[in-house]
Specification:
This protein is of the alpha+beta class. It has a single domain, classed as K homology (KH) domain (GMP Synthetase, Chain A, domain 3), CATH 3.30.300.20. A three-stranded mixed β-sheet has the order 1-2-3.
């Protein structure tokens, strides 16, 4: 049970740290406004999947390519900042849950507007 609590703490710390590092230290022009939504570390701490969202006006593929290119730098900085026996390899994934939520809200609003017009 202790291992699960440790992975949760590592997930939270990585989320905070990577958000700061991407915002302040990554200089790649392909990376615009990125928000780290979640981080999931494998049980053996070998891999961390980093879920990000990207501003609407940014090119998602270009931004992900920039993050992939910066992964070695970010991994090195994580290794310097956190006390882990093994610094996880970073994999960036675009999280579509916010987009899905916005679409659902728009659809619900559209249904409500149509009901109001029918009444």
């Amino acid at each position: 049970m202790e291992q699960y609590r440790r992975t949760d703490r590592v997930n939270d710390e990585l989320k905070r740290l990577l958000g700061d590092l991407i915002e302040r230290e990554v200089q790649d022009p392909r990376i615009g406004f990125v928000t780290v939504l979640d981080v999931r570390v494998a049980r053996d701490f070998s891999v961390a999947t980093v879920y990000v969202t990207i501003a609407e006006d940014e090119d998602t593929e270009e931004t992900l390519a920039g993050l992939k290119a910066a992964a070695r730098f970010l991994r090195k900085r994580v290794g310097e900042s956190m006390r882990l026996r093994l610094t996880p390899e970073l994999h960036f994934v675009y999280d579509t849950s916010l987009d899905t939520g916005f679409r659902m809200d728009a659809l619900l609003k559209q249904i409500a507007d149509e009901r109001d017009r029918d009444d």
